[in-house]
Structures are given as C-alpha cells and as structure tokens.
Amino acid sequence: MVQKTVLHLEDDPCLADLVKLTFESFGFSGEFLQATRVEEAVNLLKERRLKKSPVDLILSDMHLPDGRGLDLLQSIKSSPTWSKTPVIILSSDKSPELVSEAYALGANCYLSKLPRKGHGLDQFRSLYQLWIENTLIPEPSFADGVQEILSKAISLRARTAQSYITLSELAENTPVEESFWLERAMVEGNLSSLLLFLQSVISDEMIPTELTERLSMMQTKVEEALISAEQSFRKENYTEKLDINRAVLSLLESWDEEIFVDLFSTLFPLNTKVSYALKLRGCGQLREIADYVIAKTTETETILRANLLKEVSARLEGMTAGSPDDN
Fold first, then answer.
1. Where along the chain do its domains lie?
2. Statement: residue 321 has pLDDT above 70
3. Is the pLDDT of residue 117 over 60?
C-alpha cells in the first residue's frame, strides 16, 4: 500500500473525487489533499511546511476561480521547501502557449484531462504507476532560519523582476514606459545578487529568531501581493493604468518598514558595504516607482499611497547606520 501525500488543485469536485477514488482503487492509501482555489492550495502548503509534513506530488488544473495553476506552480518553484516537489498540470486546455509556459516555469508533466485515445482510466493508471509507484521523490527541505528566508527573498525578487518585464512588454508601444519597467527589472536582479552574496556569509545564529519569524510572516504577505500583481499584469487583465498602479503599490506596501529597519540594523555590522548597497538600491526602487505612479494618475488615493511610499523610502535611506564610512 502506497503511503505518499498528494495535493490536487481542482475546482470540479466530481473530477477531484474521481482521481482520488481511482488512485485508491490502484492501491493508494496515503493522504489525498484537495483544494478548489489557488489561495487554498498555497495555504495548505504553508500549513504542511509549518508542521514539517511532506507533500510528495502536486496535481493542478490550469483554470481556477481565483487564478491559474501556473500561479501555484510559480509559488511552489520559488519555495525553498517545495521547489523539488513534482508538479503535474492536469488540464483540458491544451493550447501550445500554456503548455510551453508551464514547462518553462518548472512543471514536471502536462497532461490533458481528455486523452487523445483510449479511456481516461488508462491515463490515470499511467499517471499513478509512474509518479506514485515508480518515481523516487526528493525529500522536502524544512530548514528554518535566515538561509530559508534569504532563499525565499531571492526567489521573490526574481518573480518581481519578471512582473516588471511583463509590464515593459505591455508598454511596447510606449518606449519611455518600456524602458522604465526594464530598468526596474534590472534593479530587482541587482537586489537578488546582493541577497545571494549575503546568503553566503550569514548564518542562522547571526539573526535573532524573533526577527526571522517576522521576516517569514512578511514574506507570506509579499507572496500574496505578488500573486495578485501577476494576475493583474496578464494581457487579458490589462485594462487601465490605474489598476496596474494599484497592483504595483500593493506589492510594494507588503514590505514592512519596521521589519526592514530591524533587519538593516542587524545586517550592517555583519557586512556594511553590501548592506548599504542593498539599502540604497531598495530605497531608490521605491522612490522611482512612487514617482512614476504619481506622474501617471490623478486619482487622489493612489497619489497619497505613492507619497507614503516615498516617505518610507526617505526614512529608510536616511538611517545613519550603514554608511560605507562606518567601518
């Protein structure tokens, strides 16, 4: 009897139950987790990580009520815990663009709910025999501490850079805007490189546990805002600049100022030059985007939010600790 854990993201309860019952008829006796929304699946994985409970295989539909299976796929592949967990897209949408995007984002397999020939039961049997009975699954990493936080931060920066690249592509008929968002993506890449360097020189005992826990909670909020922003930036959802401005602001607002003050205060004595560069580039990114939003909208609330971000940037940049001359 196979004792693995499967997570299935599918909004059709009949199909979800069919897969579960079919697996059980083949001898599966492990845990079968079901979710009908992307957010629900993400939360299930968070709960499993906190409990240090493995998930051996993830099945996902493509089109869900609150997003796409690719949103879950991105979240999984950017997670230090779940990045090696096999993900199979099980969808009736066979468009070449989606198939290519799924594999580019790290899907291990893309299967149609409607097989070209034969019976659906045969396809489920093949899926079961390959991924449940025969495939060796790597153990997830439940490592806690600053290394996991930095790994997550690097992956979030990479996803944010990709979002800015998407915005540059959407602005292809406006060279100034296209250039602006490409520059923002380059800054995110630079921030990732700085974080990668810090990861190589900082160990868990250098960062207080309380701060690590707060950083982890903040990253959860950042990822939720990032998923929302990624959905807003898709071509099919790209309607008004105002919506895009709000999505970008929500993403930036998910980064907690107080936590960053404490983090910078901790990092500066450990590596002043890299921490100083990280602070300046991060603050500059906030300021540049806030100025851009202010110039692009007349909506009072949006302008107010952008100005508040500029104030946050100024306060962080004005911290006296961390000047290159401090050493």
1. 5-134, 146-326
2. no
3. no
Which of 49, 30, 51, 33 is closest to 41 using CA atoms? 33
**CA–CA separation, 263 and 271 (whole Å):** 12
Least Cα distance to 154 among 83, 69, 50 occurs for 83
- pLDDT tens, residue by residue, 229-270: 888 887 666 555 667 888 899 999 998 899 988 888 888 888
Which homologous superfamily does the CATH classification assign to the domain defined by 5-134?
A: Response regulator (3.40.50.2300)
| Structural contact between residues 54 and 81, judged by C-beta atoms closer than 8 angstroms | no
Residue linked to tokens 């968002």: 181
Give CA–CA dist 187/158, Å, rounded: 10
* DSSP assignment string, 230-297: HHHTSGGG---HHHHHHHHHHHHHTS-HHHHHHHHHHHTTT-HHHHHHHHHHHHHHHHHHHHHHHHH-
